[in-house]
## 1
Amino acid sequence: MSLTPDIVRGKAVYEGCAVCHMPEGWGTPNGAYPQIAGQHRSVVIKQLADIRANNRDNPSMYPFAIPEEIGGAQSVADVALYIESLEMTTATGKGEGNDLEYGERLFREHCTECHGEQGEGSQAEAYPLIQGQHYNYLLRQLVWIQNGKRRNANRDMMERIGEFGIRDLKALSDYLSRIKPNANKRSPYTWKDRTKKKR
Ligand code: HEC
Ligand code: HEC
């Protein structure tokens, strides 16, 4: 976190990540790969550090994220800045759309104090941006945070969702997958015309 990141070097490091997270950082709408574009630098650094230390299981990504593959702390700082600078897609994978009011109510009651009014998170506190993420990824994380499979989870958050049932987790994920990020974080391109943009 204390290093000075270099976005050009970060872009070069990112080439190894693009196979799964896509060149735009949009992941895949089926949620197999999360959208990481626009995520706070502090959050990307923490997740990479946890994955590298086997504190968050990610067997498919692990070999692509270790120091032998991408280098040490400087590379992590560089790629994190590059990822944060990428614009997000709003064409995310979504849920069934039949329980959104309930999802919003749960979100307002239980989540905004850390993740913000729009799920924008916080760079300073390393609270993840969770707006406009793919539905299946969100649901998977909520289930894994609740049952402890995601070992690096936040304790207070685990307590908060401890009693939630599957309807609650689905409604939250669906609501979050539809929140549009601020205009300055949003990509003007669609999945179809994204290749036209200059890289
Ligand atoms: C082989 C595919 C693959 C590659 C290559 C890959 N990742 Fe991932 N990454 C994943 C998967 C799958 C997940 C989600 C795992 C889960 O569901 O918990 C993930 C999750 C993440 C997350 C956490 C997202 C979040 O919202 O918490 C970050 C950050 C991330 N990857 C960054 C990177 C970076 C940086 C690179 C390149 C150095 C990279 N990934 C390369 C597959 C990959
Ligand atoms: C006390 C603060 C706090 C509260 C309240 C909280 N969270 Fe979190 N949440 C966190 C932190 C911190 C992380 C990241 C932990 C880590 O490093 O893995 C996180 C991670 C997540 C993730 C994973 C993000 C990703 O990109 O992988 C999701 C999804 C999430 N929270 C949703 C929610 C929802 C929905 C609620 C309300 C029901 C909620 N959180 C309440 C602090 C909180």
Note: The pocket of heme C (ligand 1) is lined by residues 16-17, 19-21, 33-34, 36, 39, 44, 47-48, 58, 60-61, 64-65, 70, 79, 128, 140 (CB under 6 Å).
## 2
Amino acid sequence: MSLRNILFLVNGIAVVVFLALAILGQRGRKPAPPPNEIEYYDDETMEGPKLEKYLGAGVIFSAILAASLPAYWLLEPTRQEKMDKFFLEDSAERGRQRFALAGTIEGHSEILQLECARCHGSKGEGGVATYVLQPTEPGELVRTVSWAAPSLDDVLLRFSPEEVTQIIVYGRPGTPMPAWGLEGGGPLPEQPVEDLVNYLQSIQLTPEEARKRNTERAQKIMQDNPGISEGQALFMAMCARCHTKGWSYGDPEVMGGGGAFGPNLTGGVTLRQFPSLGGGASKHIEFVTDGSEFQKTYGTQGIGSGRMPGFGEMLSARQIDEIVLFERGL
Ligand code: HEC
Ligand code: HEC
């Protein structure tokens, strides 16, 4: 029997017993005499032992109150912290179940599974999504491609929790990433999206681990493309997916020429945005390190949308210098 049913039973029994007692209590009861006919204590008793008894009880209860208030005051913050931690863990656990592939959650889950893992990997390490590309030019055919889905075990190192929430709510139109939030036309209200972000928070790599992985990615690209600079390899590993059309499905067009998502960086664009005269290279470096913020200006005429990630925790300062050097030559 489940706990719920046991509680139902206990409540049922309590109601029956209560009714039975009430009915029995009514039977054979004589009407009480009117209150003005009942004799009460005389003055001697009322103002003597009786009064003292009540005053004594008052002192004891005041003392208990005086002692318990500080105790409450001392314990309350820890209690609140514990509840916060409990709610956060509970939320992350729901997010974990939503994220996972159906059939991989132990026990019974009442949570609708969204299977982010299908594209982003079971540990959020990244994966691929099959996607149908619509033709963009006359004569082109519909194409099915494999679109790389980015790792999410480091997504909060490059985006703030609010930015990740925005991405989940609105998705990435024109890519396999669907909109999940009601505002973006998806199925989820706020709470499940928050659960997903809390779950992602709980699986983040440390900056050191992320840097190590990114360095290895760039090294592999350098091995596969002998002769390219370290800056270019790092750009291919970290930036090209947004700043180069076709990069994510293995059909790259002009390197740095802009994708659906990130703007074109070729033809001296970054030199105009961060001109050398105004200490541009260091502002350029600062921008790549911190990323953009919604409605915050950057460079000469940039207005951030919050969609350009910050790489300060995912790459070393030297690596960012190398990328910026490469970008300023595009
Ligand atoms: C059908 C495959 C698919 C599913 C399912 C999916 N995603 Fe994505 N997601 C993608 C792809 C592909 C991208 C990258 C799009 C691009 O190239 O800009 C992405 C991007 C993201 C990003 C942005 C990461 C970054 O650094 O740019 C986040 C965050 C994200 N997804 C979270 C989720 C969550 C949470 C779920 C589950 C509710 C989910 N995704 C389900 C395919 C998917
Ligand atoms: C998730 C997609 C994404 C990734 C990955 C990304 N960017 Fe961006 N980037 C953007 C977007 C979007 C903008 C436009 C600014 C905005 O919307 O806030 C931008 C803007 C820029 C700009 C300013 C361009 C201008 O003229 O205004 C530079 C420079 C830049 N990115 C460099 C980089 C570098 C370097 C990397 C890799 C280390 C990188 N980006 C990775 C999305 C991305």
Note: The mean pLDDT is 92.
## 3
Amino acid sequence: MQKNRVPPLSIPALLVAAFLGPLAAPPAMAAGLVLKSVKVALPEGNLTFPGGKAADAINANCVTCHSAGMVLTQPNMPKAAWDMEVHKMINAFRAPIDPAAVQPIIDYLAGLKAPQ
Ligand code: HEC
């Protein structure tokens, strides 16, 4: 009786090995990976709020999670509604808003005449 006989690989096993072999690169090869940069042209959006100095507070606090366009395309709202909206960002979405900036932001928003 033969000892140490390696069973022949079945045809399906050979096919799987041939297919997956190139995908399963050994770790040594991963170290030689070359990453390439890609240039992507994104559509222009309202990334910051217009208004110069008056917009400093809102630009410093309200563009980390979404663009200014997200805010500027809302309908005009009275000050109380903007107050609620800013506090919704703080309380519901945990926006890290500088407490000193809250009132200037609400004033800025209430003064907006959003282009409709
Ligand atoms: C921590 C992240 C974060 C920050 C910072 C943030 N927001 Fe938002 N904001 C959100 C999320 C999340 C939504 C909901 C997005 C959605 O519904 O797709 C949202 C939505 C909005 C909307 C759309 C109406 C609504 O209620 O869904 C307005 C207006 C808005 N934010 C204003 C502001 C203003 C003003 C500030 C600065 C005081 C601000 N956001 C800062 C996360 C943030």
Note: The mean pLDDT is 82.
## 4
Amino acid sequence: MKKVTVHMWNEYVKGLTHSSGALYCDSCHQGKAEFLDKSDKKALAGWMDQEFTKKAKRTDGKEHSCSTCHGDPFNPDILAAWKK
Ligand code: HEC
Ligand code: HEC
């Protein structure tokens, strides 16, 4: 959890801004460690696009897309690598 937190801080909180202002842990987490509904991957992909891509920008000014977080080729298991 501590390892994931360091990445979340550096890559999400510092790396992105929200359309309504700064992006904090709770902008995404809303008080829960796990909040994604992974039962429907297609619906989740649409939700990610709405919440994490369209409503955010990169602080380094580069184009923001799924690959900002998931890389290219698309890696669905971001956290597995961060927990190592
Ligand atoms: C851009 C959105 C976003 C921001 C900002 C963010 N997180 Fe996350 N975080 C996620 C997502 C998505 C997950 C995966 C949640 C899931 O699997 O349901 C996650 C997972 C985690 C986990 C692992 C939870 C688990 O049970 O495996 C930890 C710990 C965590 N975040 C901490 C933080 C902390 C601390 C901050 C602020 C420094 C933060 N996050 C900011 C999106 C974000
Ligand atoms: C701000 C970072 C961020 C952005 C941008 C983002 N995602 Fe994600 N996404 C995550 C995190 C974190 C997880 C949880 C990964 C994990 O559990 O290892 C996740 C999980 C997913 C999953 C579930 C993967 C699985 O098999 O469990 C899908 C599908 C997904 N994202 C699709 C997308 C798509 C499509 C886009 C672009 C429209 C996108 N995401 C943009 C951070 C992001």
Note: Residues 16 and 61 are 9 Å apart (CA to CA).
